[in-house]
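User:
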Amino acid sequence: MTIETTNLKLIQCDPEILKSAIEGDEILAKTLKVTVQDNWTEFGVGALQYSLDRLLESQDENGWWTYFPIHKQDNKLIGSGGYKGKPTTNGTVEIGYEIALSYRNRGLATELTKGLIENAFRDEKVELIIAHTLGQENPSTKVLQKCGFEKVEEINDPDDGLIWKWELYRK
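Assistant: Predicted structure:
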């Protein structure tokens, strides 16, 4: 499945696409038939492998992990985004996103996030979308605010320090 926004095509990663991404940018470019932006991900191979493992474990997870944003005009992979698994029993999903440095400050992270939000709420089980950011004002917090999220909690994470939790309920 692909999610279309104004400037982006969000390609849902299946196991084949994730394996290509893990193997390297050149193989991924051939698989997706796109150019791959240098340093397109800060999440790294570990996150891709984790997503692949979850998809291989259960068909129920299909559609609830990684999406690759392709900049339509440039036909270029410029980041990643998606969910941390299928909705919980109480209808919660968590989103994450990243845009390559050279494509930032163009509204693309907000566009990517809005696409993920709309896609999640198409599933009637989803009542709440959450996200986590570092515990300070930064570009990611601005994206969430633009998308209607509210900061609801400050968490002291033993690995990452102060983290802010954000929520967006179905309207």
